[in-house]
Structure prediction request, 640 residues.
Amino acid sequence: MQNVPTAPLTFAEQAKQRIFKRDPDEAPIEDIREEVFALERAGDWRVQRVPEPFVSVETKYGRTKKIPVQRNWHHKSCGQCGHIPGYSTSIFWLQRKLGCDYNDPKDQTSCTAWNYYASATSNAAAQAAVAMRNFAAADEVGYFPLIHCATSYGHYKEVRNELVRHPQLRAEVRRILGMMGKELVMPEEIVHYSEWVHAMRDEIAKRVVLDLSKIVTTVHPACHYYKLVQEDAIYDPDVYGGQRTAIVSATVKAVGAQVADYSTWFDCCGFGFRHILVQRDFSRSFATQRKIDVMREEANPDVTLTHDTGCVTTLDKSQFASKAHSPKIGIPVMSEAQFAALAMGAHPYRVCQLHWHATDYRPLLAKMGIDWEARWAEFQQDLKRLESGEAQYLTWEDADA
Amino acid sequence: MPIRSAAPEIPQAEKARLFAQVTADERYKDYMYGCYECGICVAVCPSARFYDFSPRKIAQAVAREDLDIFWEQMNKDIWDCSQCFSCLKCPRGNNPGGVITIMREVAVNNGLRTAREALEGYSRIIYKIMGTGTQVSPDMIRADAFPDWGPTAQDTADNLALWRRAMPPETMHTTTTSWEVSEKTLGELYLIWHVTGVLDMIRQVDEGLHQILVDVMEESLEEQGFDLSERPAAAPAQE
Prediction:
């Protein structure tokens, strides 16, 4: 049979045929965890193993990461607990609903990275000592750190890199922890709560009680989750072709809501660390002009979901002041943990604490099929019980009553 | 808050001294590999959209050892950075945001007037994080402090103690800290600030705050039996 000559493929045709497949052996960045274990073998520190059971997830370059299902030591977030507490409460509630044994410690300090990135009134040794003190505290009680804040998570991964690379820093931190009677213990994985939510999304989906098929969301991935020490963030070929982090988006899809795209997804929220506290004109402008306005214009979402303290704070709180000049303003903002909890039937006030949020979330609740007026009335009754002294605190049993 | 201009006449030797402190930081060699001048870092930078600020110029100034531009940046540009680290998009592997972190540390360590100005109004935050172990607290939310956050700021302030009790997690019933931090834990945090020289950094930018923190911490450290004669070791990241 005679060969028929074929025309060479155009670049566009070649590009269509190209298959992107992640290969850990081709990763451009070293796997720092190998060095972490090498240092354990050398006697530099002990590695706290991820407890079983765990879920294996895929990260940016196709490596696997272990996400512990149980025995989480909740490394809480300053901004979440302080200013948007339903964020933290929802994480705890999800763990309780999924039957997880966890530890909510008082032996935990802030990572102090918000202050460090804002003011630089600290140094590498102090930051590393704070991180390792918290890790040692978790190890002492036999629980594994689950880090609520993306800045804590990103910063701790930076600290891990610095400790691996600089022996003198390790020696200094070992000396400081020794003064407290603590050991140098590095967790096998540094795990963000949203990675736990991602790993458990199918279990969460089984418990969803609302039809969210008409709810359109936009997702803001947190800079300090996937830009700092980028190789450790979760990616999934089924989410944006594996070209963006799958975090949050995969969870939203799992619970049955829509994820809508918008062009400024890579932009930060405008938090700025120092700016959100003492120079908020920048934060407000960036959050509304580069994020909220663009989302409204391009995706018109019912809610925007994110997975970090600063992002929820900035995107939610910045909208009020911009109402005067922009009719596009008014997209409710919450964490995917709060959204997943609502989907599973959590109380919007007792659990998700939405009354702490600034942008009006009530139209969203109504569209989700939640009778927010009835739930608010229930919460007002709770407050009366507390005020009268009938009860001192709202309990987990009250939350599900 | 505008940052006022730096003093006009600064000897080159002083600029070189500060520059040497930046490049001597152990992290510096992990953050700067040279610059293609491609501008990707600027394209993704939020601060570049709102200020006369460029992470590319930061990278170029330090790579070229341009002391005059470096000095200008030490006194203004570094405080415009959002520290989001979008600039890690750099194809060369540079970390301009990380270089800025080091430059800020050097500015604070040396008590630059512009560093003190940039941190004006920020002292209460430093007090909160160093003194209580959590960065912000529920009682910071007040209508006069956050008028731009809308009516929920006033609602929160009016109902704060009650709303904090209306949350199931027992560690979160606090109003002056984000969660309950034990006294022992706080003492250990104070020890870290003491032995790493961070308290000395605070003295450089706010002497009054430094004295308040010393007063708060000393009693706790002594109660827990920590040896206060322990002085900071040479900071390992700035040898």
User: Anything to note?
Assistant: Residues 234-239 of chain B have pLDDT under 50 and may be disordered. Chain B touches chain A through 92 residues (CB under 8 Å).
